[in-house]
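The passage that follows is intended for readers who have already worked through the single-chain material. We present the inputs for a multi-component assembly, then the predicted structure in tokenized form, and finally a short commentary. You are encouraged to pause after the input and sketch how you expect the pieces to fit together before reading on.
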Amino acid sequence: MKVPVSERTELENRILAWMRDPCWSSDETRFNELALELFALQYAQCEPYRRFCAARRRSPGKVAHWSEIPPVPTGAFKEFSLCCFPPHTAQRIFRTSGTSTQQRGALYLDTLTLYEASLLASFTRCVLPDLLPHELMTFLILAPSGEEAPDSSLSYMLDVVVRKKGTQHSGFFVRSGKLYGEELLAVLERTANAGEAVTLCGTAFAFMHWLDGCVRKAARLALPIASRIMETGGFKGRSRELPRSEFYALLEEFTGISRGHIINQYGMTELGSQFYDSNLRYPGLRRRKLAPPWTRLRFLDTTLENEVAEGETGIIAIYDLANTGSVFAVQTADVGRRVETGFEIFGREVSAEERGCSIAADAMLAD
Amino acid sequence: MLSPVASVPIVEPHPEAIRAALEQLRNTGAVLRQCPARPRLTRLASLLDGWADPNSPWRRRLLSALPATTGFAPAAVATGLELALKKWNGAALFDLVEREFADPTACDGEDTFSARGFPVTAVSLAGCLPTPTLWNLLAPLVLGSPVLVKPSRGDPITAELVAASITELDPELGNCIRIVPFPSSDAPSTHAFLSADCVVATGSDATLRAICARVTPPQRLIAYGHRLSLTVLGPQALRGEALTRTAEATAVDVALWDQLGCLSSIAVYTVGTEKEAGVFAEALAASLTAAEKRWPRGPLPDSARAAFAHERALAEMRAAADPAVQMFEDPASRWVVVCEADGRFRPAPLYRFVRVHPVHNLAALADALSPVRSHLAAIAAAGFGPDTSRATRLLGELGASRICPPGHLQAPSLGWHHDGQPVLLPLARLTDNELS
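Having made your guess, compare it with the prediction:
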């Protein structure tokens, strides 16, 4: 079934308008309308998704509320080309991490407009809430640039942030697969002396690697008070695993950036939107992840049919209107719970030790 | 009413306390190794006889405590222990010592060939299965090496109960065991713990790589990586009465310990047609329904719950797209059987999630298993009739360190060459005496 291009463009324009609205109002009616229209479009355009929905006896005519829309497991992005347009017309393909022998998940994008609008809105609101619209920030990034890692959604995201909000001193410190830790240290020492606040961004594992170097050199920094850190990802499958509280204590010790200025991003390649800790946006209040208004989360029991009771932990399903060209309802392999106006996630740091001497074969295949 | 257990020294989780305990154990071990080996072996053999008896107070204590700490159903623990321990008796211990050292007196160090334990052995446990804990504590003592044990997060009680049973039987031997619980993220304590003369560690490949970097010669490291086990069925196991029997036995291999042990089957390969695989998958689903009634699955930790649900949903989506993929599941999602269209190995979230793959012949099986061959532990095999020896040779070539009938995966003998290694020899310092 073909959906006219104009229909999708019109829908995207309405979603875009919401993303560009600085109010961030969580309008349930607005979300439901857009979600049902997007479901109808994706059901019509994406064959594997349509079959999945049919097996669950869900179709646009039978669904009255967004929460009834079946979410696809993230692993489906490895198995199927989940896109609502011919894959060869994709402007960009972001792939999940993995070795060359592994099957990697792919998010196909035929437009980057929504992707950029979503990421900038969330990033500026949650990571840079104290910056005036015209103000810029120096971003020092422990990840490769988008040019170096064209299929990394994180690198693309950070590229956009640097392009739109970064000073000329911003830079990427992972090049040709190598972390230039000493160079980063030297830049930080200079900025610290100049009293210039910076934002350090990168994966948790890259930060750990860098901190190991700081320990060896006995380097301690006292970065200006407005400096901050945005870290993402976990330690799963790495030889060194660290509870987040200990990780933040180390970051605080070596950079001088207080844990109130360290925030975690929860994101995944399969989604167009990201979720950030609330502590910079709402200092002093309980730390939780904030969801932009064009997203919704459900916390499901193991049958994946029902939501768990309020406050209980459930399997996270995310409905993200930024995913117009693929499937916007995604079931993650993460567990979390609703907290006040946001949510918490659990389980991304759990060591394999708990699981016995047998290990999930996906971990073995990743070796 | 069970009598209270003997007290076991618990070491404070602090680097200095751990180093002090190691030193103390070295001194105790020196005294232990002065005594003849045979009486020590006899005491350890009688300890195993005690653990092999379902009515022994130690078994009953473990049975009453383990379900609460690990979440395994009491009936599953009882069956699992019975299956695993019935062959682990004193006679089996003597057989093992004779197989590896020819004579128990080799442990006395006075013959042409002698084997001595290290001054002290540190044992880092993983997972939540009790039987590897029992053996890992006992084995160094066979050679006269005292043991410092780090229990796993998943099972904080078995090590203490085993140590207490040794103390009850022989306080002198019991004095050669110390327990030190600390999290793996405690780097200073880990560093101190790994300074033992011999280290036995179980864990993921990443964990073992990290330990390997810290334990260097002349220290000895005996590492057991994470492994998986499988079931391979020939045509004769897929037909007639054998079909139900094999499905029931395979359900035991899947259900006991909720696939958390390296000897749990996580996939079944059927050598035959796709239709035969589908029939077996259905029979296995029926057997898992019965197994769930007898041995209900334990609760899933958060991360496992999400991984299980994710794989289930993915199988559902693949089944919707491809009629050759079939999914059978419990209404409450307490087990899942996925009959795959091909032999390609796929992720296994454990907790009673099992895949059935058809392969046309043994050569295709070898291809299908090539991505995981370095991680293979045991293979349950049946139904090959006159081709059995050809099949077992191939399975050995693939890297399995044990081949057994379905239903027996969780019951290795004491002499099983875990990871293809000798059992006691790696724990020993060997001397060839050419003067005697």
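Commentary: The first helix of chain A runs from residue 5 to 19. Chain A has a mean pLDDT of 89. How closely did your sketch match?
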